[in-house]
Amino acid sequence: MADSDGEYIQDNSDDEINAHQVTSRGAPGTRSSGLRTRGSNQAAQQTWEVRRTWENVVEGADGTISSTVEGLLEAGKRKRSVEEIEFRMLLRDTTPLQRGIIRHLILILDLSSAMSEKDLRPTRYLLTLRYAQEFVTEFFEQNPISQLGVIGMRDGLAVRVSDMSGNPNDHIGALQALREKEAKGQPSLQNALDMARAALFHAPSHGTREALIIFGALLSSDPGDIHQTIAALVTDKIRVGIVGLAAQVAICRELCAKTNNGDDTVYGVALNEQHFRELMMAVTTPPVTRSQKQSASSLLMMGFPSRIVEPFASLCACHSKLTKGGYL
User: How far is 174 from 169, CA to CA, in rounded Å?
Assistant: First the structure.
């Protein structure tokens, strides 16, 4: 029993030694892995500290951050200007671009119950009205001799918010008045587009005819066939762009493609608040004229009046006196 116990103890001691040796061999690896883990945590902490962008917000002398917000907005404008310049330089030697500087644009806003959703803060409705006011200001900064009108879609009808005008204060005042109303009913793309066609009917041919739709619903309550309206828009050479707030809608993509010569990139769906604003502000840049047919301008006769001598005397329009000569 003593020998067997001794052998048994000896075997256990060998196992303990082997186990100790295995543990001692694995210890350096465990320590090194711990060091690597600690190092990666420190690197992640440093990366997190670098991305603390709220430290860039500095209060002004009046104790507010309005100056910082204005600086960020100006930086966004400069970024869009730089991107536009780079794009022009890229295509300068390959494709000649012609942009319409005299624009006639109708802004169509969705005022239906779908705009009450809160996926965009505070709500789609209030955020759209705020961005619409910023859009009006930016539009007239980029296009000072253009015309703009605003139409709303509510209860299956098209509501005229503001008439075609070159005064941004008229549109901003009308948009501010909408904040007191609630979003309700269903939108109607056909009624809104028909009203936009009527507003753009007298627009001269030397200017562009455009419509921008802010669409938050997934359906359109139309009284007739909207495809007939789309065909009329193509005939009148009215370009339609859409910014969706929910998801892509097939009729919206077809509308944009047919009115823009097959280009459906003017239809975008906002992913968040910042993307929504970028999609709207991108429309402030004058569009590219794609063909000579679209860019055909009507000539205006300008110059000094011509003197005409007639064989018989007639009353002049200025003094109501008989005279044989005058200016026409």
Answer: 9
What are the structure tokens assigned to 202, written together? 């007298």
In this structure, the strands spanning 208-215 and 103-110 are parallel
Number of CB atoms found within 10 A of residue 53's CB: 7
Write out the two tokens for 298: 């009507």
Residue listed under structure tokens 């061999």 = 25
Say how far apart CA 162 and CA 165 lie, in whole Å.
Answer: 8
SS3 category, 190: helix
Question: What are the tokens at 234?
Answer: 């193509």
Per DSSP, the residues of 199-260 read HTTT--TTSEEEEEEEE--S----SS-HHHHHHHHHHTT-EEEEEESS---HHHHHHHHHHT
- Length of the chain in residues, anyone? 328
CA pseudo-torsion sign 184, 188, 191, 195: positive
Supply the pLDDT for residue 328: 74
Measure the CA–CA gap between 199 and 201, rounded to whole angstroms.
6
Q: To which residue do tokens 């404008």 refer?
A: 77
Whether the Cβ atoms of residue 167 and residue 181 lie closer than 8 Å to each other: no
For 249, how many CA atoms within 13 A lie in the half-sphere containing its CB?
Answer: 18
35, 187, 209 from 294: Cα distances, Å: 68, 31, 11
CA distance 37 to 24: 20
Whether the Cβ atoms of residue 129 and residue 175 lie closer than 8 Å to each other: yes
Cβ-based neighbour number of residue 264 at 10 Å: 15
- Return the pLDDT at 293: 47
User: How far is the C-alpha of 196 from the C-alpha of 151, rounded, in Å?
Assistant: 8
CA-based nearest residue to 249, from 220, 224, 278: 220
Tens digit of pLDDT for each residue in 261-317?
A: 999 999 999 999 999 999 999 999 988 775 544 444 556 566 777 888 888 888 887
Residues of the chain with pLDDT under 70: 1-58, 81-82, 84-100, 290-302
Q: Which of 230, 242, 247 is nearest to 283 (CA)?
A: 242
- For the entire predicted model, the pTM comes to 0.65
